[in-house]
Design a protein that fits this description.
Elements: H1 7-20, H2 24-33, H3 40-53, H4 58-74, H5 85-96, H6 98-110, H7 114-122, H8 131-138, H9 149-154, H10 165-183, H11 187-199, E1 203-206, E2 211-215, E3 251-252
Antiparallel strand pairs: 1-2, 2-3
Length: about 250
């Protein structure tokens, strides 16, 4: 097991994902090129997506997203397909105010300050301390990571006691920036690929002392994209990498 996530290990994790997880190439392409939504409707979709992700897996959120989007397109109450009344009302508010929100996003982007985008994201209903960073990334900010539970674990922060946001973000951001500087990847790519590995159940973390392991084994759970109804092709081999990952429970330690 490792006590810190080195650049070399991150590179191994990235290559393994690209060779073995059908989601990895699409995730890498998205995180490498993500830009701000270009229409009010697209922005509203991103906000609603992040609202739905909070508190549930991406795969589960994809299923709910389809139902919510159909309700919005049909002008039907969101609460009829998503029973969390307060959040359903917030989703409808975001949809109604999409043109105003789009103008506000553009103004924040035009300021040239990533913090301005993050602060604007935080002002939206049901966008919290962690998810404001997720939404900022979805709006084209590639220089910050989301200090979610798995990034915190990898950075050496246990789940309890929960540390203040400033500390959590600083630790996760420092780790992501170090890995980005050592590989040429953006922070958004580092954040996205590590999140993907965690989502697929490939990390094991312990504390006292802090140690972690990456398990090079078949990813668990549905595709994060196919959960929305897509059928993905098999993984595409990365040129120059070895497809033989050894036994199913082999770990990179």
């Amino acid at each position: 097991m490792q006590d810190a996530l080195s650049v070399d290990l991150y590179v191994q994790i990235k290559e393994w994902l690209l060779n073995n997880d059908p989601d990895a190439h699409r995730m890498l392409a998205w995180a490498s090129t993500v830009t701000a939504p270009t229409t009010p409707e697209a922005l509203a979709g991103e906000i609603v997506w992040v609202q739905l992700c909070a508190g549930r897996s991406t795969q589960a959120a994809r299923t709910i997203e389809r139902k919510v989007r159909r309700a919005l397109d049909a002008g039907e109450p969101v609460v009829e397909v998503f029973g969390y009344r307060a959040k359903a009302a917030a989703i409808e508010q975001v949809w109604r105010e999409r043109s105003m929100n789009f103008a506000a996003m553009r103004a924040a982007l035009d300021s040239g300050s990533p913090q301005a985008i993050i602060d604007w994201c935080a002002s939206l209903p049901f966008i919290g301390d962690d998810t404001k960073y997720q939404l900022a990334k979805n709006c084209g900010v590639r220089s910050v990571c989301k200090p979610d539970i798995w990034m915190c674990r990898l950075a050496g922060l246990a789940d309890r006691p929960r540390r203040p946001l400033r500390e959590r973000f600083a630790r996760c951001q420092a780790m992501a920036q170090q890995l980005a500087a050592g590989t040429g990847d953006s922070v958004a790519v580092v954040d996205s690929l590590l999140w993907q590995a965690a989502n697929k159940g490939l990390f094991e973390v312990t504390f006292d002392p802090h140690r972690f392991r990456f398990h090079a084994r078949a990813p668990r759970g549905r595709s994060i994209f196919a959960a929305a109804g897509e059928v993905l092709p098999p993984p595409i081999p990365t040129p120059g990498t070895n497809l033989d990952t050894g036994p199913a429970r082999e770990s990179l330690s």
